Fold these 4 entries.
Entry 1:
Amino acid sequence: MLQPGNGVGMDRAGLKKLRLLIVGGKPHAIATLRTVFGIIGINQVCYTADSVRAIELLRHEEFDAVFADDAADKVGLLAFPLAARRARGVINPMLPIYLVCASPLRHQVEGARNDGVTDVLARPISAATVIRKLRVAVLAPRPFIMAGEFFGPDRRGGARAPYGGDDRRTRTPKRMKVSAGETAALLAQGAPSVPALVDSQN
């Protein structure tokens, strides 16, 4: 399993080592996505239509990335990406999660990012797009943030120029940049800054 940021090259040989999970979606969309993965050389692909089953897989098996259809069932009251970040016992709550949509609107993209999605991909997805997104996720991942009820990749698109005026912002709970090890420790301790965890059975 390739770990984000460890400097492993993402050439064709590296891509073939990836293990992916597909969640939800219509048969034709799933077949198309599998075909794209096959073109790249990724054959270790697991699929489930059941979001609850997907959470169980994330608890017991290691994956390098998840591609979830925007129509994937909720886990209890939570959208699948949000549940995947918060569910108890998930091996890697910081793995890349891509939401696949037909024609995503701006509010859908913003909502997905608030749920902790790594990126939103519009169908049809090309092999070049998948390669580019996976390379970024492994070689230059965005830092993960814990702030209030949010837990996921940093939603800011880039560095902002410093503001020279008075600071009139309303103070919110401190943002925390966390590593995978720190995340596991915080989840185990039930730290207050970690969003409430969920059990997929609920």
Entry 2:
Amino acid sequence: MYANQFCRFLYLNPKIQSFCTDMVSHVLEGSWVVCWNFFSNKFKGCRHDNLATHLCPCGYLGSDRCRCTPDMVRRYRDRISGPLLDRIDLQVQVQAVPSRDLVSGVRGGECSAAVRQRVIAARRRQQQRQGVVNGQLDARQVKRHCTLNTAQQAFMAAAIERLHLSARAFHRVLKVARTIADLAGADGIETAHLGEALGYRFSRE
């Protein structure tokens, strides 16, 4: 586990005892973290956490090198507890870079500089609107700044029932949708933003 004032990166290994992975959920919730090893280290919890894990026991799911059966993959993923997943806002599967692109150095997609400018603009919009970034909104502020119209309320009510969202997950989806809207330069949350936020939350399969 590595930590600093701004960002924390954790590698989650479902092969270890499940109670160890469950401890990560407490790490994500608290503002202070005590890490026990040969010494006891206490450090201030940060605002941004990144977790990484393999999609299957061998780590090669989706390639010819993978020898895992569907049952092995299911049992491997089931070791990641629901409470932990409930605290993860964005689940993104990262594919390996094709060997041809790796050798040629070809890069696709939007350049980092352009993305950085959009992020800066979105954060500035959030600060001007509510005084903090979206990730720091409490439940009262979410209700004020992440308003939904009647159709969107019905959309989210159906999603809560179908996906069994907790109250925590519901508020996190709203904050992610608000962020997506800010990145797009939209004044308010649109149904497409809600759908995208839900898609990020359930992209494991």
Entry 3:
Amino acid sequence: MVYFDLGGVFFDYTVPINQFIRRNHLNRQKAWDSFFLIDPPAFLGKVNSQEHLNRFFKQIDFSKKDPFDFCSHFVSHFQVIPETHRLAEKLSQKVKLGLLTNIYKYNYERIRKYHKIPLLDYSPIILSCDFGLSKPDPKLYELAQKKITYKPEEVLYVDDYPENIKVAKTIGWNTILFDIQTLDQTISNIEKLALSC
């Protein structure tokens, strides 16, 4: 059984945000600090993605002058990581795939709509916003473990954040830190470990 994270594994979500920062001549560090500062309530499902974006605009003193749907625009411009897509499609023929991710309300539907993840039969799908918990809270991993019939040592978890990997190890899961800088080796390691768990 393999649990995949989404952002940073199946797609690069930073691309449209960096484009927005450049286009509007914003301070990159300040904009990203503001973006991450307001993430927690959105990950917990307390605000939806549009409300999150509005808070971000307020934080950086950006005036939105038109009814343009920034949420759909951002998601539609996430940059797919095709190697992970091909790997998931291949693995889906042999092992069960699930999702465990921090995400805003309604973004999962947008991500599927714009084909930013392979359209496979993931089960279970653990979205932080549905449970009021977000990684790296151990309770979310425990919930994910309870949703499956596999023993912890039969689970592989793939994420691009070291702190999320660290918590997954504490419940006995096998883990791989997804590293875009060593993509070929990372993909190879995921495949080998996924087929041996």
Entry 4:
Amino acid sequence: MVSLMVSMRPLRLRSGQALTLCPGAYSTINLRSSYWQSGSNQESPVAVDTPSLRINVRQAGPQDLPRLVQFNVSMAQETEGKALDPARLQQGVAAVLQRQDLGFYLLAELEGQVVGQLLITTEWSDWRNAFFWWVQSVYVLPQFRRRGVYRALEQRVRAQALEQGNVCGVRLYVDRDNLIAQQTYRALGMSPSHYDLYELDLWQ
């Protein structure tokens, strides 16, 4: 069992879109399980110990815009072979940093260097009367992969979701051919959903 003893100032989010243009199934985790705990008076950033690294995780701010844009460019090229429009991408990332209702980015740092990111967006569930958080735009620098960086980010997501109190689960999309990512998500307690994703791309 793994537990993260941490508490942070709740981030209150209004309902925002949870839209992805990446094909694939999605996984989900129930935050009501006893897999994680929370409970101290620390504030962000949070230090997470891994077998080889001590990683700080913090919420991104306006000063992180260039790095976030760079990571998104690299991620799109590597995972989907897409060359993103730099101007549109920068506007999209900046919108998240400026508008609380769109979500928030988390960054993982090692010795002051940003080595990974993820984006959280929200979906309101009328059935649950609570939010689902969607993990998107995951990227870790190649030289820091399989060293606990994503695990540190994911631990922060769970702790913050539990602290907020109105988040019923965490979901993410994963390409069906990305077996390494699927193994990582399973190892962290996520399970495949029985839903399939259908999409209507209005900007083709």
